[in-house]
Design a protein that fits this description.
This protein has 206 residues and is an alpha/beta fold. 50% of the residues lie in helices and 14% in strands. A hairpin with a 5-residue loop joins strand 3 and strand 4.
Length: 206
């Protein structure tokens, strides 16, 4: 069932898996579409009680659409209110963002990590199956945690902004595990070398 909510009633989750790049062509196309046709597809939110006992609506899916409506000064927006727990909403967001090219790799990995920490009873095989992915894919994604562990914001930013392709970030993570002090020496190559060429070079070191 679709209902209308005030845009300013909707709270963003603690961490977003994607950026809103308002200057990008896809977002500008979305803006034009909303101006010409209105918002066709409702966003998704979950309802929970806030600390004051009043309902709080947290965004589950539709950050781009919500942002477009806010830019256009829409007071209300159509929503689907989902009966989801916070964990279920996180898993839904992770699955929904699997194929989106503007998903932020480090934020996505942190979301996966939070999900797995909340479900310690799930094996890697169980979680991969729930996501519809292979265990090797899940291990590669989780390997990016090392860049949080070594605490180098420059490396994290290069991966997050897409300057280092995700495939090369997986390869770089292997080096970071055994020689974190050498990671910065490989940043230029990680940004410019195709994965098929980057892997043999790193393999000589790891």
């Amino acid at each position: 069932m679709v209902r209308m909510l005030a845009c300013n009633e909707i709270v963003l989750p603690r961490e977003s898996l994607r950026d809103v790049r308002v200057e990008s062509e896809p977002f500008q196309d979305l803006l034009r579409s909303v101006v010409e046709q209105g918002l066709i597809n409702p966003i998704a939110v979950r309802e929970a009680l806030g600390d004051d006992g009043n309902p709080v609506f947290t965004l589950v899916d539709g950050l781009q659409r919500l942002t477009a409506c806010q830019i256009l000064h829409h007071e209300t927006i159509p929503v689907h209110v989902l009966d989801k727990t916070e964990d279920e909403a996180l898993e839904m967001a992770i699955v929904g963002n699997l194929q989106r090219v503007d998903t932020k790799p480090m934020q996505y990995t942190r979301g996966l990590q939070r999900l797995m920490l909340r479900h310690r009873d799930r094996s890697l095989e169980d979680q991969a199956r729930r996501l519809g992915k292979s265990v090797s894919w899940l291990k590669d994604r989780l390997s990016l945690r090392i860049f949080d562990e070594i605490g180098d914001p420059a490396v994290q930013d290069l991966i997050e902004e897409g300057h280092i392709p995700v495939s090369n970030a997986y390869i770089l993570a292997k080096l970071a595990r055994i020689a974190p002090q050498e990671v910065r020496q490989w940043l230029d190559k990680a940004q410019t070398t195709p994965p098929d060429d980057f892997l043999p070079e790193i393999s000589q070191r790891v």
